[in-house]
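[09:14] KT: can someone run the structure on this one? pasting the chain below
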Amino acid sequence: MYVNGSKIENAVLQRVKQKIQCTKTMQLYPHRRKKRRGIMELVKIKGVQKNKPAREECKNMLTMADIIEGVNAVLNPGKPKINWFAPAEDAVAAVHIKDGKYDEATSNPSVVYGGKVSDDKVENLKVVAYEGTEGAIYAEGAGTDVTVDTAYISLAGDGQGIGGPASGASAKYNAKLTIKNAVIDTNGRTRYATAAEEGSVLKVYDSVICAHGIPYGDDIERPDALMSTPPPALEMDGNTRTHCTMSNSSSYFYNSKIICDGWAALSTESSEGYVYLEANDCDIVCTKSGYGAYSDPGCHDYFNDCNFDMSCMAAIVAGNSDMTFNDCTAECGSYFALTHCVNGWQEEVADITVTGGDIHTKKECVLVKSHNMMLDLCDVNISSDKGVLVHTIVNDDPCATKVTKDVFGVNVVMTDMDVKGDLIHEDTTREMWVMLNSTQLTGAIRHANVAFDKGSKWVATADSDVVFVTDVEPAQIDAPAGVTITAKGAQAGEFALAGGGKLLVTA
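[09:31] RB: done, structure tokens below
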């Protein structure tokens, strides 16, 4: 034993040096310490190779007759068939232009209170009618190309069918109808303000079109005729639609207001192949209970710089159809979009593309009812009071399409976004696929396949379960303390996340 410069002092010094070295080692390689507790620092996670079902081409298309037959079979079995598309046989318009000529003999001047009418132009028209069979402007025939400049149209009384002579303004059988500076206001069940049918083209500029329907709500009996109110699965009420485009027709709206009290502002029906609906710089409003726009199979809807103020949802996309929103705003009492598939073809896909804009919903941003979907969000400010971006469920609609094979599934792509909200997949008949491109997602993901590009990050705010189908760098995934992400990857492991959460990977 030595006192000064002794062996004891040398031994203590050696132990201190060892301790310092050990501390440095743990700082440089903290996983070595954490391994003792069964948890490792997150390292690069290898994704699994998983084939996504291919998108199948869907060429199936129902005719109007097919739809009538199918809906009657499910909702009106054993009873005489009802054709809710057909207008009343005694319907008559104030101004009837047929095959390029003003047909005075079949027009109804008794409801006209001003205006000038020729074969191709209607000016300063004033129409007030109180019977459900009386309409304002009806243009039909391939030779018809008429412009209405300045009109006030007020219609009351219960209508029948879609479009036709009893509408506020309707085009049919390949006619072209342009409306400028008009106010069209309707009151009554199934009382359409505007319509385009059978290969026609309708254009509306700088106008206000509004459909009120008949009063409905608490203690007011609902109409019980087939398709006189929205199907219950659509989660709304009302008894008329403001506008409808159908049967290979096109409609365009510019700098206009389209308003409904209930059911629908801009609707579609049987495309019979191809329907086009476009709105530019428009205000689309549902005051009481309804949707902004619908896209049936074979329908293509485009909205540019539009404002949606919705009692319920902005959009419903059904079957093989699409909607595109560019720089739109939407304030929605329920969802931004609802999608569903009821035509019987499991390869159908609903396409929704949203670029720019601001969207706020009280419920889920997007609700998917047993439907394949391609949801493409780019640089969108989107939020939900419920905290859910996308929620998929099994549809309880009696007309819901049954799935018997692997289908395209629910595909969500987010690009150039910083977004908060959950992705919850509860449709057990198909898979969900999520792709993040230069996006930070803060929210839970449940039952989905997830892919990241190098510029993306996911912060899970609640327990989640996913399949990584791309490699994940440590900086790309995080969760706060108490949150566990359960994942499938190429290699198993248990990892500590920077925020205090945990990642459990099974191979």
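[09:33] KT: thanks! The chain is about 10% helix and 45% strand.
[09:34] RB: yep, looked fine to me
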